[in-house]
Amino acid sequence: MMMLPANATDERMLDLVRDWVDALVKEDYEAAFAMTAHDPYYKWTPVLMQSVIHGYGLPEPRGDGKVFRVTPMDSASGQRPRHEVEYFDEPRPVTDTDQSVVGEVWFDLPLNGEWSDLTATFQVRRSTNYTVLVLNEIHVF
User: Fold this and answer.
1) Could you list the residue range(s) of the whole structural domain that residue 35 is in?
2) Domain total for the chain?
3) What is the pLDDT of residues 86-132, one digit of tens each?
4) Residues near 68 by Cβ (< 8 Å), separated by ≥ 6?
5) pLDDT tier for residue 141 given thresholds of 50, 70 and 90
6) Which residues of 37-76 are buried (b: 16+ CB within 10 A; e: fewer)?
């Protein structure tokens, strides 16, 4: 997982997510998986990430056979994507760690050449020494 400085800016966190998207464009799900931390609750694996993206938010193949792939951001068309960091009013301590969840990153993904409503969300966890992004969901919002 990539560790950012404790005082990482919103732009630095969004840059990390852009790098994560670039790995998905290359269909390098293992590299994308390695860039973020993972809560065991979500049971993410590189294969599950690929399945959920290919299925437009569902881990099973679509009934119509259509497959979705992450495509380059700079050539995506359509609606303006949501790429933002939101902070909570109060940090939420993470049990048995020195981390607190201070907010979330919301990042719409470009699929098959268009901006989509398939959104990746990440917890922003901070300690006194670093910030990490924890992949929460890849889901249609």
Assistant:
1) 4-140
2) 1
3) 999 999 999 989 999 999 999 999 999 999 999 999 999 999 999 99
4) 53, 54, 55, 56, 111, 112, 116, 118
5) confident
6) beeeeeebeeeebbbbbbbbbeeeeeeeeeebebbebeeb
